[in-house]
Amino acid sequence: MAVPEREKLIECKDVQITFGSGRKKFVAVDHVNIHIFKGETFSLVGESGSGKTTIGRAILRINPVSSGEIFFKGRRISGKIDKALDQEVIQKCQMIFQDPMASLNERAKVDYIVSEGLINFHLYKDEEDRQMKVEKALREVGLLPEFASRFPHEFSGGQRQRIGIARALIMEPEFVVADEPISALDVSIRAQVLNLLNNLKKSRGLTYLFIAHDLSVVRFISDRIGVIHKGRIVELAESEELFLHPLHPYTKALLSAVPIPDPQLEKNKKLLVYDPSIHDYSKDKPIWNEILPGHYVWGNEKEQDQYRKEIGL
Fold this sequence. Notes:
8-stranded mixed beta sheet, globular
């Protein structure tokens, strides 16, 4: 029996994003090809400055694309688009920002912060309806409705991040870019926010692009993971597959840095350091290849053969 093809909600085709021009030109994202299925959590993992957030912002039309195309529900949303589609993208694609301190307007009350999107697009019948929607969004993220009359500085980091999540949810989005939503939070609060994101995914049928540099977090929340290094995705696989069979040396280096709960094992483990000079791409050029069904890796012919040997193909 044929497996029904899953709906691609977001698709990036050969996307390149550059900043500056001439001698100062910097390639932040280099020919990225990914698709995110409806209802899944797709994670992008890599070190700081690898281009994770730039991709997320490009999908939300914050960063312009230098070349390539981005699609939402099969319609191109990169470059110039008509006003109706632009408004649909703004409403249906939302972002949860990394820093709950910087992403909330300190001078506005929570009531206005959460409902700003509703006000801009007039997505409410009357004042009573607007207040009801704010109350519902706050309750959904585990905050009391009376918090609406307070200012952001009166809340803890975890509560602020919940306000940020409520602000995204109130627009009834289908796709959410979660840009390291827990990196600024205490460890005890992280689990709460991750559980909240998971529960909201189930109850609202959300699709996430989850951006992180912590692989242990990503394993808990993701369906598929893409590993990005200097603007290029070097490996992409289902969550458990990536942890069980990491192939690219950069993926292995990232995984070796994940802490082990056993102090003795942690003490004796060997940390791998990724050295890009091990790749010789002078003659044999690298390609993006599917080694196993759904498991892609970036490498030249010689490296691809080595990866196949590693997994016993």
